[in-house]
């Protein structure tokens, strides 16, 4: 526990949230409404498997070359919020599905 | 041992605080000699337990179920049944908004009361319990939102309806139910059918029933200085689906239609009871209760009588159901009178404006017994689905620890305290946990119990 605290800024993988204006998301919606954007962030060191070590080794030895591989677990949403609706500046409503994460995991 | 004692002490402190925080429903009414009316579902149970009452009630229902109600009621047997039932708890039973089995409750209410009214009456008594708490904290909240007293140039620029949408989006429950009604009401079915109106109305009712009024009123009654804001306010209920129709029916026809439905009829009667302009009070509202009027206005959204702002004028507030008085024939006067209760009602207008400006009237409570009863917000809480998600979103889980404490080998002189199981909240603030810790969950300030339960645990942690 002490080690984790010492290493500054590397929090474990989890949900973070941010209040953003819909127009800031760059999805093409002109709306002043504010929504809560939840995303996944953090380190995944603790959930490395033998698989990751093996794959890394094989990559170093150039046994795996051509394909894009990821020899490290990644902090990603495992579930998304169903929908969020908002009104744009032209008084039209829009509904966006799976904009925000609801659960995170190292996968 | 010391630790365990400290825990017990904290536990009892917690319990005391909890009992102080939520007044028991028994306290108030008994003290002041005011008995809240029995709800009709319960009254029906009481009646069913009694053979005389239950047989008379069955008779009356058969009388009213007949095609021609008036001739059936002229029947001696029916009259006798009605007279007996006027003495029973069924006679003055009431229902609560958003209660369990609300429809069943209202069906029981009207089964008696339809027999008592002589045909169609202009105003009907509300089958709902009176809104006893004035809930002026909502108005106080509104005054914070509207920023009265702040720099006028700032408040002139801000859009309160946009702020209200933001507050809703930042609350999980409000956002979920808002998104739900918007996506349903906005879904086009075909080029001729704009939307599924029935489903849209249902989703709107869920929004107004299950989201606390501090969110819903704020969106519905926000004050505006410009047209963009007022248009947003008008669009709150997605009027192109839920309000407008191909044709505008006559208002009295619409009222007849509404009265065929127990829920619509009850909500309209409630509106008439709470928003009917009275010139004997300062605010022109019955008992100067703005809160009750706003509540019964919002209670009609999602029914045939759904009211809305007629245009996007920022300051002149005119609301109306989707109907007109054309084709009224010799009922023109009655129709206009009915419509004016929406369009030119000083009580409703004052209530909307007062909420928007965050100003409530300061009238001393006329009946202290009413103040003693639980505010509706508290009563509604258990039925709200967000409670569950709110407690879990704090990253807490409840573990019953009565057995584990006993295992720690505590002496038997403490057995009285020990025989009570208590719950411990484990907070997931340990690094490595995948659960999110929310610093603040929007405007959920009305949950003191959670804080009181966390407190002893945190203190215990410190002791460790």
Characterise the protein shown here.
The complex is a heterodimer of chains A (107) and B (464). Chain A has 107 residues and is an alpha+beta fold. In chain A, 15% of the residues lie in helices and 36% in strands. Chain A is built from 2 helices and 6 strands, in the order H-E-E-H-E-E-E-E. In chain A, the strands form 3 sheets. A two-stranded antiparallel ribbon of chain A has the order 1-2. Chain A is elongated, with a radius of gyration of 19 Å. Mean pLDDT of chain A is 90; it is low at 1-6. Chain B is mainly alpha-helical and 464 residues long. Among the domains of chain B are: 40-114, no CATH class; 158-357, Annexin V, domain 1 (Orthogonal Bundle), CATH 1.10.220. Helices cover 55% and strands 3% of the residues of chain B. Chain B has 26 helices and 4 strands. Chain B has helices at 2-21, 27-32, 40-48, 51-65, 69-74, 76-85, 102-116, 136-146, 152-157, 160-169, 172-185, 197-210, 213-220, 227-234, 239-242, 251-259, 262-275, 290-298, 332-343, 346-357, 368-372, 376-380, 386-393, 402-407, 415-418, 448-463, and strands at 307-309, 319-321, 396-400, 423-427. Chain B has a two-stranded antiparallel sheet with strand order 1-2. In chain B, helix 18 (290-298) crosses helix 20 (346-357). The longest helix of chain B is centred in the first third of the chain and has 20 residues, at 2-21. Chain B is globular. Chains A and B meet through strand 1, strand 2, strand 4 and strand 6 of A and helix 10, helix 11 and helix 14 of B.
């Amino acid at each position: 526990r002490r080690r984790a605290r010492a290493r500054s800024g590397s929090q474990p993988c989890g949900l973070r949230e941010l209040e953003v204006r819909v127009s800031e998301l760059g999805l093409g919606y002109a709306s002043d409404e504010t929504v809560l954007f939840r995303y996944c962030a953090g380190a995944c060191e603790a959930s490395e498997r033998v698989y990751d070590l093996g794959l890394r080794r094989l990559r170093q030895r150039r046994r795996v070359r051509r394909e894009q591989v990821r020899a490290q677990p990644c902090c990603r949403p495992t579930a998304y919020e169903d929908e969020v609706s908002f009104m744009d500046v032209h008084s039209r409503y829009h509904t966006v599905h799976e904009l925000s994460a609801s659960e995170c995991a190292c996968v | 041992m010391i630790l365990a004692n400290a825990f017990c002490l904290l536990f009892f402190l917690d319990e005391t605080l909890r009992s102080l925080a939520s007044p028991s429903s028994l306290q108030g009414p008994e003290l002041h000699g005011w008995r809240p009316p029995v709800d009709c579902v319960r009254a029906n149970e009481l009646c069913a337990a009694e053979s005389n009452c239950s047989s008379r009630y069955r008779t009356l229902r058969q009388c009213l179920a007949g095609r021609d109600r008036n001739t059936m009621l002229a029947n001696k047997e029916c009259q006798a049944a009605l007279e007996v039932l006027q003495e029973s708890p069924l006679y003055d039973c009431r229902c609560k908004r958003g209660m369990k089995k609300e429809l069943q409750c209202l069906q029981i209410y009207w089964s008696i009361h339809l027999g008592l009214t002589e045909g169609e009456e202009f105003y009907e008594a509300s089958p709902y319990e009176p809104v006893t708490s004035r809930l002026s904290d909502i108005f106080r909240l509104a005054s914070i939102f509207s920023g009265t007293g702040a720099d006028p140039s700032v408040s002139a620029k801000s859009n309160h309806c946009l702020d209200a949408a933001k507050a809703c989006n930042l609350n999980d429950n409000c956002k979920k139910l808002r998104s739900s009604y918007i996506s349903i009401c906005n879904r086009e079915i075909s080029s001729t059918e704009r939307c599924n109106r029935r489903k849209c109305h249902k989703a709107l009712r869920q929004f107004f029933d299950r989201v606390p009024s501090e969110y819903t009123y704020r969106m519905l009654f926000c004050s505006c200085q410009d047209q963009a804001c007022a248009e947003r306010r008008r669009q709150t209920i997605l009027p192109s689906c839920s309000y407008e129709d191909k044709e505008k029916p006559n208002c009295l026809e619409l009222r007849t239609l509404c009265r065929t439905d127990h829920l619509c009829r009850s909500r309209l009667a409630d509106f008439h009871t709470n928003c009917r302009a009275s010139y004997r009070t300062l605010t022109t509202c019955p008992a100067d209760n703005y809160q009750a009027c706003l509540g019964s206005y919002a209670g009609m959204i999602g029914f045939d009588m759904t009211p809305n702002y007629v245009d996007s004028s920022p300051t002149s507030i005119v609301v109306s159901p989707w109907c007109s008085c054309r084709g009224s024939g010799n009922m023109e006067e009655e129709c206009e009178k009915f419509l004016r209760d929406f369009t030119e009602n000083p009580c409703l207008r004052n209530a909307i404006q007062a909420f928007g400006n965050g100003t409530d009237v300061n009238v001393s409570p006329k009946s202290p017994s009413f103040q003693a009863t639980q505010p509706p917000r508290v009563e509604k809480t258990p039925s709200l689905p967000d409670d569950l998600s709110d407690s879990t979103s704090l990253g807490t889980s409840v573990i019953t620890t009565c057995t584990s404490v006993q295992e720690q080998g505590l002496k038997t002189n403490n057995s009285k305290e020990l025989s009570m199981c208590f719950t411990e909240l484990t907070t997931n603030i340990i690094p490595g946990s995948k659960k999110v810790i929310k610093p603040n969950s929007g405007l959920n300030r009305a949950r003191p119990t959670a804080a009181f339960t966390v407190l002893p645990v945190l203190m215990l942690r410190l002791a460790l």
